[in-house]
Amino acid sequence: MKEDVIMNYFLTVGELNAYHSIVVLGAIILLGLFTGKLVEKIKIPYITGYIVAGLFVGGLLVLFGVKDIIHSLEVVSSVGLGFIAYGIGRELVFSRLKKTGKEVIVITIMQAVVTTSIVSVGLILLGVSLPISLIFGAIATATEPASIMLLTKKFRTKGPLTKTLIPLVGLDDAVGIVIFGVLLSIAKSLEAGLHLSFIEIVEEPFFELLFSLVVGVVFGLFVSYIIKYIKSKSEDKYEAFLIVSVFAVLVTVGLAKMGLHIGDFHIHLSPILTPMITGVTVTNLISKVQSHDVELSVDKFTPPILIAFFTIAGAELVVAFFGEADVVISLVLYLAVGYIVLRIIGKIFGAYLGARIMHSVEPIRKYLGISLLPQAGVALGMAYQARVDFSSDGVTILIVVLIATLFYALIGPVGVKYALQKANEIET
Question: Which of 67, 139, 331, 361 is the most buried (most CB within 10 A)?
């Protein structure tokens, strides 16, 4: 009888369901905060603690049969990812990139292409079909920027590795989206026995990048105009900077999720690239002092959102894993191990090769690849798209990426911190 009362309470639909989600969100933020502080005491990055807290929350939601609550928090994750992307964009100052721009571009493309090649070829040799191997290879390019950004801010890192790493993770998603779009089209045509033209293959990813760029620039111009208009000695300038930044993130993320409708055409926008381009536009059109003030105002606002982002990510992994059925566990584990190992090899070797080509300094050659192991939001988005396009094989792809994401979420931040420490870029 008591169990029925509890279930009825949590499963109430309509308006009350939104309040249930708010209660869960509050608990997630508090639990994530304390778990992050706890794991820091044993020298583990706090981001890993957030994810562990999320795994615990996800397990409880599955246990009590109320796992659907986590889906109602998707908007929080999207907004969190938007703030992360906006922050990455604000780090891409053109005047700084003049010295390292070419180096960053070459290394970004090289590590992405090498990773895709090694994962795809390696899985083919392990007996995986060509279309599915191509999809895994494309997903492997994605690097999750959130943990990297938070760790560099947390430890106030400075040095050549940091200067290369921050713009690289921003560009990496752009390159990854192009590679995934192209290989997804090729894989679908191979699966269906079709022969698509080059234009048909590159059309969708091209328009996604183009319109993400246009929308991001438009809102960046608008926000930068408002920031310039605000007087530097104004007492409420920090509030104004925060408000316009929140506006920029919410609107660009919302538009990206909805897409653009032009006549009969529906154009997808990237929920990462769109706010990132807005951040790039803003930071390059305002003064250094204004840019610093914007960073201060936003950084004081975002911690609860970012804690929620990582903790919800951990919970989503558990919920999604237990939400799938009819998968061969042995096959999934076999593919997951292969994918994880091959991606690690690809990222480390690809980054090293790109750094050697560009004659980068030793810390970049030795430790950049280790810093690129984190993987989460973008990769999961790609995996969900593959699930839609490949039915039964898509479910296997999704489960494998979920397992890999969990693995990278736990060891990725540790690898980033290790690399920054070995490069002597963490302030003591």
Answer: 139
Contact predicate 83/249, CB 8 Å: yes
What is the enclosing helix (H) or strand (E) of 265?
strand 265-267
Question: For the packed helices 303-323 and 288-301, what is the interaxial angle rounded to 10 degrees?
Answer: 50
Paired strand residues for 262: 265
Residue 321 domain flag: no
Total residue count of the chain as it appears in this document: 428
Q: What is the pLDDT of residues 83-121, one digit of tens each?
A: 877 887 887 777 766 666 788 888 888 999 999 999 999
Number of domains comprising the chain: 1
Structural domain harbouring 158: 77-302+328-422
Measured CA to CA, the distance from residue 54 to residue 311 in angstroms comes to: 4
* Cα 321 from chain centre: 19
Structure tokens at 175: 């390159």
- Is 42 among the domain residues? no
Token pair belonging to 269: 């926008």
The amino acid present at 137, given as its one-letter code, is G
Measure the CA–CA gap between 171 and 273, rounded to whole angstroms: 9
Question: What does pTM read for this prediction?
Answer: 0.74
Cβ atoms of 75 and 22 closer than 8 Å: no
Cα 54 from chain centre: 17
Provide the CATH number for the domain around residue 211: 1.20.1530.20
> Quick check: is 221 in a domain?
yes
Q: Do 312 and 67 touch, CB atoms closer than 8 A?
A: no
The CB density around residue 9, as the number of other CB atoms within 10 Å, is: 11
Residue 45, in any domain of the structure: no
